[in-house]
Amino acid sequence: MTQSQRVAVNHALESVMSAKSLVDLARYQKEPQKLISMLLRVTNLDEIETRLQTLKGRV
Measured between alpha carbons, how far apart are the two ends of the chain, in Å? Predict the structure, then answer.
């Protein structure tokens, strides 16, 4: 894997972790359930994070 690919994986991982934090924050602040449902339908952030962590481990 090239250096630029490593950087891309790290940036993607940071973005996913930030997105998960925003979802957690929305839950904590008891934002409307509709907003949380919409965010969770967009993608399975846990699965993406796991895949990125696996990819990062191979770098």
Answer: 6
Q: Where is 29: in which H helix or E strand?
A: none
Contact 16, 52 (CB under 8 A): yes
Cβ proximity of 49 and 9 under 8 Å = no
- Rounded to an integer, what distance in angstroms lies between the CA atom of residue 18 and that of residue 28? 15
Token pair, residue 58, equals 């191979």
Cut 0.90: pTM above it:
no
**Structure confidence at residue 32 (pLDDT):** 66
Residue 5 host element (H or E): helix 3-28
